[in-house]
């Protein structure tokens, strides 16, 4: 009797569990913190959901993402970039007390190994508080970084991770060179200047006689008129060779398998008229 009662209770519980609607358990998504950025999310490491035909493929999602990015940059170009003209400033030459020129390279937000490189240029004659002997000593110290034609010293640095660090290193290096050049204990007078590292490049200039002046333009127009006049005289005299007519004669002769005599007028002044059989 007890076993029958227990079976009836179990059957009733089973029937009730089948009739009762099941609620879908939604696990709340935990947003990773700052210390967990870049790590694999355990919530996304499970199996993919069954595809029920209610979504597009991953390639199509990539095309949509690219289209959104293009439209974003188009909006920036149309609405935000014209406003940059309000921030434009006229170019002003740097003052004489700032002879150092730094050059940077940017890749518009993209990571690139050359983005940290900083190039420094300065003219030795623009450096203040340097006598001629100290300037020559500075030229000897910089060595192959000196250009004797332009009197420019060019140095670069990319040892550090940021542009500010590389710029600071170049600035400290210039201060060290200035201190060494102003040191009177040894002026390197026994060391000669050596410019063998510099190879002069030939400067090709446009010839003066090739420039199109008003006289040269008039001469070219006169030569053009003379050529047109000679062509007109030859056409009137019937000595001008008609290329279309010659081709038609040759094609007609080829169909008959017979040679044809073509009269070709030689250049004016030299030579005689020749008949060529084709």
* Secondary structural class: alpha+beta
Summed up, the helix count is 6
Question: What is the radius of gyration?
Answer: 43 Å
Distance between the termini: 126 Å
Proportion of residues in helical segments: 25-40%
Can you tell me about this structure?
The chain has helices at 2-19, 58-80, 132-142, 163-181, 214-237, 243-256; strands at 101-104, 118-123, 146-147, 152-157, 261-264, 274-277. It is an alpha+beta fold and 278 residues long. A hairpin with a 4-residue loop joins strand 3 (146-147) and strand 4. The longest helix is centred in the C-terminal third of the chain and has 24 residues, at 214-237. It is flat, with a radius of gyration of 43 Å. The model is unreliable at 271-278 (pLDDT under 50).
In short:
The chain has 278 residues and is of the alpha+beta class. It has helices spanning 2-19, 58-80, 132-142, 163-181, 214-237, 243-256, and strands spanning 101-104, 118-123, 146-147, 152-157, 261-264, 274-277.
List the helices and strands and how they pair.
Elements lengths: L1 H18 L38 H23 L20 E4 L13 E6 L8 H11 L3 E2 L4 E6 L5 H19 L32 H24 L5 H14 L4 E4 L9 E4 L1
Antiparallel strand pairs: 1-2, 2-4, 3-4, 5-6
Which key terms come to mind for this protein?
278 residues, alpha+beta, 6 helices, 39% helix, flat, four-stranded antiparallel sheet, two-stranded antiparallel sheet
